[in-house]
Amino acid sequence: IKLRVKGIPEHTAAEGNGPVSALDAALRKALDEFYPNLKTMSLRDYKVRILEGTAGTSAKTRVLITSGDGHETWGTVGVGHNIIEASWQALVDSVDYKLRMDEKRSRKETTKQPVSGNP
Length: 119
Description:
This protein has 119 residues and is an alpha+beta fold.
């Protein structure tokens, strides 16, 4: 895959036990250095459904991905003209959700810390 992470071009490849597993591994490989907290995230379930079944090969594909990180579990959806496109959308949304939730959790923990000092 080729993408930009924080303005830096990344070009990675990976293998998996299928195309979605390989895509997931390549995405993580590209993001690992920038977002080490993604190591706690895992893809838990993956489902594919063909929409508009009567459309044959022009039908759209919907991919449902369930991910988790030890704190919570979430689901994302991707829809596209092929399984790779739909899977990519769902994977990217899953990673984005994880990063946003970690940021939110971090802000919450920062505000919970007691203030110390003398007046």
